[in-house]
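User: I'm writing a short report section on ligand binding and want a predicted complex to refer to. Could you take this sequence and uridine-diphosphate-N-acetylglucosamine and write out the structure as tokens? A short remark afterwards would be nice.
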Amino acid sequence: MARILLTGGAGYIGSHTYVALRAAGYEVTILDDFSNSDPGVIDRLVRLTGDEVDLVRGSVLYPTAVQAALSRGIDGVVHFAARKAVGESVAKPLDYFETNISGLIALMQEMKAAGVMRIVFSSTATVYGEPEVFPLTEDMPLSHTSPYAFTKVTCERVLEQAARADDWAVGVLRYFNPVGAHPSALIGEDPRGVPDNLMPYIAKVAMGELSRLQVHGNDYDTPDGTCWRDYIHVMDLARAHVQSLDALMEGRGHVLNIGTGTPVSVLEMHGAYQAVVGRELPHVIGPRRPGDVPRLYADPTKAREVLGFDAEFGLEDMCRSSWDWVQAQAAGWRFNS
Ligand code: UD1
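Assistant: Sure. The structure tokens for the complex follow:
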């Protein structure tokens, strides 16, 4: 069976994809420097799969670490390892350019030297900039409104140009808003400090760790005035990577939106989480957050046509799995416990 290298495999999406790949029969090697993940995730992966994890500890920026990982007999790479906080990227653009852009190039140089020419790349809906036409299709123009978005647009260009020169098989997956957790509640999103993103923030309000949700603006041009996003369950997203790799194994490259196509407002998300928790979660309406776009949701048709991918989980599943996960963490399932 093929062996896949997951860079950033201990992270939120990487860890769920690890489990999905193992379940699909792939062998997997993880390369991670734990700069934004907890080494305790590895034990959870052992428990979830019943098997040792093949791990190389290191950064994609260190050729020796990448070479060590590729020497395991790798047939394809899923490249998650990157920085992803928009605000931080504004403060530290060079760090983002180094990890995200130089990291991809360094990885591809080593892949090429090792003759491994299949790569699935983690991209984002942020590459569409501030679109005005919806739903978003993959042929729409790309732009960037932050250094983070710039890195993802640039990486997509790097992959495209490289594939023109050499025989790369490239799968670009543009994630919309990944949320939720594995149904075991053993792995999930574990943001450090106060979360920027909506669902982890609501989860901390539900846990009583934060006092209330601040809704960033309710005067947008949407039915309830709060921003629309396309939330996708991380279990669905993980499966999209398996299907993307399956396609690359057949030499079928692709650039795809991975979303549900169903927009959900901030207030709808808050209401759905309340319904799962079974009590009111305090919230206030605050000002708009700079840089937010009113609407961002996918046309998921192409992923269905190219990969046969369809999101299966709805909003309630997303909220319930998140709630189970944060409660399990608080109840002593913290990493390393
Ligand atoms: C953000 C990033 C995006 C990244 C994604 C990862 C920005 C501008 N975009 O997307 O690049 O890929 O996270 O999942 O940061 N909200 C509140 N109160 C809160 C938090 C969020 O009202 O405390 C609102 C936001 O204003 C937004 C919606 O919830 O309307 C979703 O926000 P968030 O979860 O941060 O995701 P995005 O902004 O879509």
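A remark for your report: The chain is about 40% helix and 15% strand. The CA atoms of residues 261 and 298 lie 5 Å apart.
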